[in-house]
């Protein structure tokens, strides 16, 4: 599953978790009756369990959707610029050293 799909489903599962938690609170306070589905009464405990499961799925999919590619550290811009400058300096020094070796061999 690609990152955008993970982000989408993370939001969807977060909404489901929120809805189940809100319904559980409303049922606990007596605003609505316990739902009856397939001839069975589903108590508040089931609603909280569903909310917890949907929250866990949302967090997992959110992590997969918003994490960076493997092997790349999230550095502040100033650190990234410093790292890139050091890499350029190292590459330049290697080039200079190789050209000096060629000049010394020719002399």
Structure description:
With 107 residues, the protein is mainly alpha-helical. The protein has 2 domains: 1-72, no CATH class; 75-107. The protein is 74% helix and 4% strand. The chain is built from 3 helices and 2 strands. α1 runs antiparallel to α2 (44-66). The chain is rod-shaped, with a radius of gyration of 28 Å. 8% of the residues are buried. The chain crosses the membrane at residues 45-66. Residues 1-21 form the signal peptide. It comes from Mycolicibacterium chlorophenolicum.
Task: Please render the helix and strand layout as text.
Elements (H helix, E strand, L loop, with lengths): L2 H26 L7 E2 L2 E2 L2 H23 L10 H30 L1
Antiparallel strand pairs: 1-2
Helix pairs in contact: 1-2
Strand content: under 5%
Give the beta-strand count: 2
**Contiguous helical run count:** 3
Number of domains in the coordinates? 2
The side-by-side strand order for the widest beta sheet comes to 1-2
Report the span from N to C terminus.
61 Å
Apparent shape = rod-shaped
Largest sheet: 2 strands, antiparallel
Main structural class: mainly alpha
**DSSP helix fraction:** over 70%
Low-confidence stretches: none
Radius of gyration: 28 Å
Mean pLDDT: 80
Helix and strand element order: HEEHH
């Amino acid at each position: 599953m690609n990152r955008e799909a993970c982000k989408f489903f993370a939001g969807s599962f977060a909404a489901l978790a929120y809805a189940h938690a809100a319904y559980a609170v409303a049922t606990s306070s007596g605003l609505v009756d316990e739902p009856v589905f397939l001839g069975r009464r589903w108590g508040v405990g089931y609603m909280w369990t569903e909310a917890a499961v949907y929250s866990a799925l949302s967090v997992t999919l959110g992590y997969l959707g918003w994490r960076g590619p493997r092997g790349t550290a999230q550095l502040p811009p100033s650190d990234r610029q410093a790292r890139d400058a050091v890499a350029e300096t190292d590459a330049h020094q290697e080039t200079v050293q190789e050209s000096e070796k060629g000049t010394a061999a020719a002399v």
